[in-house]
Write a structure and sequence with these properties.
two-stranded antiparallel ribbon, single chain, 9 helices, alpha/beta, 39% helix, globular, Rossmann fold, 261 residues
């Protein structure tokens, strides 16, 4: 387990982990320019985030844990798919989106998401609406997981957990879609994915950024107990009526209904 202090942890000359609690454009200084650099960016809670607690990646983790007694785990994964197809997302940091979109004009910048390629249409729509521009010219007939600049890693139907991004990255690099990669820069909000990528790459320069702004800033006005009330109410409203209330509205509705029970 790596510590989460907001400083660069330099483990050797070529591999390092940086924790970034709030986006800071100084992070761009850690990205070498040139054709041999590959930048990989997680989507959910790095580039994209929903307007409310329910249907975000933090909600999904808690939703999955709260329903771990359910044997048919694909139903839990289906809840995330339902969310992705029926809600709108916004950019978590407009500055991050602008900086890395500009970077994609000179360096290969790809999305690297645990979403399944089944959600490609909705995902690419969300990316476009957020204003993010990836390097979209790369295609490879032997690697269909790459679509319009986004690599879709997918999740396991049996566990409802995301796939291993370290393994997925090694598979991508083995296809020689890029002629030469000497430097990899990877940013993700999920510590498990940070560890997977860090452990997978052994023979090239690697900077891994654990970006925790979504965890630090979003929904911080609510306790976890309140979020545990808000999330199920929002998701149930989405499924039954197609309407998803904001966090404050959902909590108000809950307490208002409880008052008259």
């Amino acid at each position: 387990m790596y510590p989460a202090e907001p400083i660069a942890r330099i483990l050797n000359m070529t591999k390092r982990i940086i924790t970034m609690p709030i986006y800071n454009s100084d992070i761009l200084k850690h990205i070498p320019t040139g054709n041999s650099t590959l930048v990989l960016m997680d989507l959910d809670d790095v580039i994209l985030t929903p307007h409310q607690y329910a249907c975000g990646s933090i909600w999904y983790h808690n939703h999955r844990e709260a329903n771990k007694h359910i044997k048919e785990r694909h139903h839990i994964l289906g809840d995330f798919y339902y969310c992705a197809r029926n809600i709108e997302h916004k950019a978590l940091s407009s500055q991050l989106v602008a900086n890395f979109s500009n970077l994609s004009e000179s360096v290969t910048v790809l999305g690297f998401t645990a979403r399944s390629e089944e959600l490609a249409s909705e995902t690419l729509r969300d990316v476009k609406n957020a204003g993010m521009k990836f390097s979209t010219k790369l295609q490879h007939e032997d690697y269909p997981n790459l679509k319009d600049g986004v690599i879709f890693v997918g999740a396991s139907n049996s566990t409802a957990k995301p796939g291993n991004k370290g393994t997925a990255l090694l598979t991508f690099l083995s296809k020689d879609i890029l002629p030469e990669v000497d430097n990899v820069f990877f940013i993700d909000d999920n510590l498990q994915h940070v560890q997977e990528v860090y452990n997978a790459l052994q023979d090239m320069s690697l900077t891994v950024v654990h970006y925790t702004e979504a965890h630090a800033r979003l929904h911080c006005d609510f306790t976890q107990e309140e979020l545990n009330i808000i999330g199920p109410l929002q998701f149930e409203s989405l499924k039954t009526s197609g309407y998803i209330p904001g966090n404050e509205e959902a909590l108000f509705t809950y307490y208002n209904n409880t008052l008259f029970l």
